[in-house]
Amino acid sequence: MAAAFQVPSSVEPGQALDLLDLARSRAPGDRERLLLGLTSLCRASPDAAASQGTLLSDVFVALVQQAERDIRRELARELASADWAPVALVNMLALDEIDIARPLIASSPLLGEEQLLEVLITATLEHQIEIARRPSISGRIADVIIEDDEPAVMTALASNPTAEISEAGLARLVEKSRRVAALRAPLVRHPRLSTDLAGELYGWVGAALRQAIGERFSVDADRIGAAIDAATREALAPPVEAPAPTAAQREEMDRRLVQKLQQSGQLRPGYAIRALRDQNLSMFEHAIAALAGVTLAQVRSAVRADTLEPLTLACTAAGVDRAVLPALLEALRPLTAGYPAGSLPPAPCFLSSPEQARRRLKMAFGHSQRV
Q: Looking at CB atoms within 10 Å, which of 184, 218, 344, 356 has the fewest?
């Protein structure tokens, strides 16, 4: 492995021999020392590291997969500002435990919009908060955060003055601050808060924030009075419970959301897995169908089949990694009375390309509309 890596001429011969000795060792500690040694070497010679391309990426990923948590955390700190690091390695560490992922999410120049959206959709609440805090996140990422409606993540976004929040997005945050009190203070201080939005905020913030708004904006007194009256009436009015959506309405909402995500390029396999963790079977089925390019009826047939092979084909066609299938089944079966039945099929089912898996799934179910 290390012999194929061309050591830069600027590296001392003794250092190169040390790395080769570590590469020949099978001891876990030596593997970790090799990982840190290669990191130091690449940091000292970034041009040489960049020239190694795929080889260096494969070496790092293989070593990191065997590394202990403390080593992964130290490596993430080393790579937080590196522009030479293998992208695959940075992406993998960004999805690791939050203590490991945090410095990369905060500042890695190699985490682009698509990678950040992947983390936002698939990872934990702590990961989402760190993304919302990242300097200069795009308007697309901000819109996804606002759409997801998680109070802690929206508050982190509102507290990030460098985030590219659109005027419409800021208006939605102001409206959400009616029920999410934590949003109010960062919104009052937000550099792009307009006079109109400040007038809306004034109606439901406390005295200290009203004073801050008054010091910053020339707000129309009549409008402020009307806003306060409206907020008072709303607070004193008896609560009106909206009727719960019917199953058909929920189904249509799921379909539209998946369609919107797909059209905007934001639909990823992780979104389907996250829907399943949230016990939203309909959303999971719609997402897998859209990602795999098959019908909803075919996915539902696979979910309720007597064997696991149709579901593995559907997941392969959708781009779901085989490694997550056991956890996926654990979340799925309580929602489907134990289906799909059977044990995991052999690995060859996952060796098919997505297109091959799609064809095999269609052959298995044809144009059946059984649901």
A: 218
